[in-house]
Write a structure and sequence with these properties.
Length: 637
């Protein structure tokens, strides 16, 4: 059994125990074991043979004994007995979005439903609505969830699941004798939110020993092909990968070709043909058969009369035309980030204190951190009541002084947008905060008009500065809300609220296509880590990658701005654009202005929702970003 198969057994046990109603700590233990086994870079079978199971983080004596039984006998008695008590098909039923163990157990006990096809048939026949806690709307949601499940069955994986393995393999390849350069290509290099397989490329004159070492790597569970310049393997976590090796002189065309995308490469080959050249991974070839070798990608593009095109832009969305006119934008980079405006501490569900989180952000070059612990109604996170919010302000002020003048702490909150459309704090509480992030976490399966209106209420609230992870999606199990996104983006452009690209690879929300459209309409973006622990700050590059795919420039991302500009923007937020206030150097916290408070009285977060989601088309506050030769930006697919 490979790592993926082992992990699946423990994940299934956790699900079956939950259906059975077992102790939640036992359920959590099995799910943690599943996650650990799935993500472990070494093949667990090899670790087991070495007697090192207990050295794997999260694997205690009981879990180690069960792994030993599985790898020794190929089966697990505990799991088999559990499957006799509870039909294993219910695990698939629980994979339907928003369908938890209680409902899965209800459908099984009342209607003998033990599979997704049986569940779909019962829902279409109207048999679910008569059950306790069910109705026509619940039935419709289940059918929508089943359709969503089918759409997700693409075989692609979240970028974050493959990233660490890819970096480990690159470090391994770069350390091999004879390797002059090694890179990961494909969707991973282009920072797509999901990837298929991994592509590794190496520059070397003697590929044989490199291929042998790659195929013998401890993370490899199965060798699928072993050739002179290409090998294919399957890792212990189920991911497949190819390695290709060519001399350094040909590495530019190799890297360009296998980075993709397919549509970008087709357009590039067409351009080459018009110039009497053919383009392959080996070289640019003239009509007489002579080759133009390119050691770098920049040489490939230059030979075709183009500026270098960053990998994130290579999707055939107008980047080749812009490169021909020397009109590509200067994309935002990781080094441009000065602030992180969405972070959590032990005041709610974070792992570290305010002081520790500030030091972690400071160590990564940030000059400003917004503490945005959860609001009160998100009980599972220990959200803050207004009273605790005021207590936290005192600590933030103390920590700001303790950190000295080179670093700024802001007090904010990640405020829940409730199911009824109201924000989780009164306007007076929101007005006392330096920054407000409003987010959807619950009731994401509401009808489109209803969930869209909830988000519009937040966008139009004068106290809200940022909309956090706008769709609420979570990889790989939860799709985002079914939003009328165009209406939301237009409203954001009109109100001036910033839209977050949440850098956590479990979210990457907004994704690149809606972020691109947001910029086209004149919206601002914020790239935040949503950090709950120190290591989370290191996820910022994922958000930057998505922003680059959206053609974002530094001036369009509020947390690249100098602190004075950010403070002025926060002070000016509100209906009609309150006058910008002078920045007080070293101020411990940015108070909401009197002008903003006065304006807020005219627009309560509890106001009645309009009847139509997009009844009126807002006018953007600023012109859309300029692009190549003054032409409209090409729209992403």
């Amino acid at each position: 059994m490979n790592n993926a198969a082992l992990a699946q057994v423990f994940a299934n046990i956790g699900d079956l125990l939950e259906i059975k109603g077992e102790n939640k700590f036992k359920i959590i233990a099995y799910r943690r074991a599943a996650e650990t086994l799935r993500e472990h870079n070494r093949e667990v079978r090899v670790v087991w043979q070495e007697g090192g199971l207990r050295a794997i983080p999260g694997v205690g004596a009981a879990i180690a004994d069960k792994i030993d039984e599985l790898l020794t006998t190929g089966r697990l008695g505990f799991y088999e007995r559990l499957k006799e008590e509870i039909p294993p098909g219910l695990i698939e039923v629980m994979a339907v979005p928003d369908l938890g163990p209680k409902k899965a157990a209800l459908f099984w006990k009342e209607l003998d439903i033990t599979s997704v096809p049986a569940l779909e048939a019962a829902a279409r026949a109207g048999k679910l609505r008569a059950l306790p806690g069910m109705g026509e709307k619940s039935e419709a949601k289940i059918l929508a969830g089943i359709e969503s499940l089918a759409r997700r069955a693409t075989g692609r994986r979240p970028l974050g699941q493959a990233w660490s393995l890819a970096q480990d393999m690159l470090a391994f390849l770069r350390g091999l004798a004879g390797v002059e350069q090694a890179e990961a290509a494909g969707s991973l290099r282009r920072y797509r939110a999901t990837i298929g397989d991994l592509d590794f490329l190496a520059a070397a004159n003697a590929p044989g020993p490199i291929m042998d070492a790659f195929c013998a790597h401890p993370s490899v569970a199965r060798v699928l092909g072993h050739g002179p310049t290409k090998s294919s393997v399957e890792f212990a976590n189920g991911l497949q990968a190819d390695l290709r090796v060519l001399p350094q002189a040909r590495f530019g065309t190799l890297l360009q070709y296998f980075t993709g995308s397919k549509d970008h490469n087709v357009k590039l080959r067409e351009l080459a043909l018009k110039q009497g050249l053919s383009l392959s991974e080996h070289a640019l070839t003239r009509a007489d058969g002579s080759e133009i070798l390119c050691a770098t990608e920049a040489e490939v593009y230059a030979q075709l009369g183009l500026d270098y095109i960053p990998p994130e832009l290579r999707e055939d969305r107008g980047e080749i035309e812009a490169a021909a006119k020397h009109a590509l934008p200067r994309l935002v980079e990781l080094g441009d980030l000065r602030s992180d405006l969405h972070a959590h501490t032990t005041w709610s569900d974070g792992a570290l204190s305010i002081h520790a989180m500030a030091l972690a952000a400071q160590a990564r070059g940030r000059v400003c951190l917004a503490i945005t612990d959860h609001s009160q109604s998100l009980g599972v996170t220990g959200g803050l009541t207004p009273e605790r919010l005021r207590e936290q302000r005192l600590e933030i002020n103390r920590e700001h002084k303790r950190l000295g003048g080179g670093f700024t702490l802001l007090q904010g909150a990640e405020v829940e947008i409730r199911a009824d459309g109201r924000l989780d704090y009164a306007d007076s509480d929101l007005a006392a905060l330096d920054i407000v992030v409003a987010s959807l976490h619950t009731s994401l399966r509401q009808p489109r008009e209803q969930v869209t209106q909830r988000l519009l209420n937040a966008v139009n609230n004068p106290h809200v500065d940022i909309i956090g992870h706008p769709t609420g999606r979570l990889f790989p199990d939860r799709e985002g809300a079914d939003l009328a996104l165009e209406a939301v983006l237009r409203a954001a452009a009109a109100s001036g609220v910033a839209l977050e690209i949440n850098a956590n690879p479990a979210r990457l929300d907004l994704d690149d296509a809606p972020a691109y459209r947001a910029l086209e309409l004149g919206c601002l973006l914020a790239i935040n880590t949503d950090a709950h622990a120190e290591a989370n700050f290191d996820l910022a590059h994922f958000g930057v990658g998505i922003a680059r795919r959206a053609w974002a420039t530094p001036d369009q991302v509020i947390n690249t701005w100098p602190l004075e500009k950010l403070r002025a923007w926060l002070a000016s937020r509100g209906p009609g654009g309150a006058a910008r206030l002078p920045v007080i150097s070293g101020a411990p916290a940015l108070k909401k202005t009197a002008a903003k408070k006065a304006a807020a009285k005219k627009s309560s977060s509890k106001k009645a929702a309009p009847k139509q989601v997009a009844a009126k088309k807002p006018v953007a506050k600023k012109a859309a970003p300029k692009r190549a030769a003054g032409k409209q930006r090409p729209r992403p697919a």
